[in-house]
Specification:
Blueprint lengths: L3 H16 L5 H8 L4 H13 L3 E3 L7 E3 L1 H8 L4 E6 L15 E6 L9 E5 L15 E6 L8 E5 L5 E9 L2 E5 L8 E3 L3 E10 L5
Antiparallel strand pairs: 1-2, 3-4, 5-6, 6-11, 7-8, 7-11, 8-9, 9-10
Amino acid sequence: MASKQNAILRFIYEQQQNQGYAPTIREIGEHVGLSSSATVHGYINRLIKKGYLTRQQTKSRALKLTSRGIAAINTANPVNYVPVLAENSDIDEPNADELDFLPFPEQLITDHNDLFMIHQSNETMINIGIYPDDVLIVHRQTQANNGDIIVTDLPDASKQVYRFFHEADHYRLEPENAQMKPVVLGEVHILGKVVSLFRSHIQ
């Protein structure tokens, strides 16, 4: 499934080809399932910053794909962009203007609209090869099975990564680091399950 960024690019291109002009912000939002015009503007601004779109401020319907944008929607191996959330980002309604996006090949993971990425911020999971500054690819979900590696909001911390266990009347968040102790809680706010990672350098 294409990301919303790719869907927006493709819709603008198709409208230009079929109608001779770009769609309105409202039409773009309706096509890709975004009700907020501010959110659509955020996506448009990100696409412009990346060089996929241009916009003439003095004209209406002035959005136009660049050669890079056309190449992106026509490539044989589609590349989608997955949002990278900051530690303080709202998981449900992140500010699109402040989001970073990283490219991810469509053939590797297909449900891109259900994914987000975060940077691992500490050493909770180093024994299984997850190191600080690794970029974790996370499937957005609120439930998990025992043994899953999850991203969670702790009461006194930012987004954290642990192995999840539900035991009787409590939850145990187990670090994969012999120097750290488990976190035991009465309830856990699960943001998603870690499904993959990549890093820019070898440890």
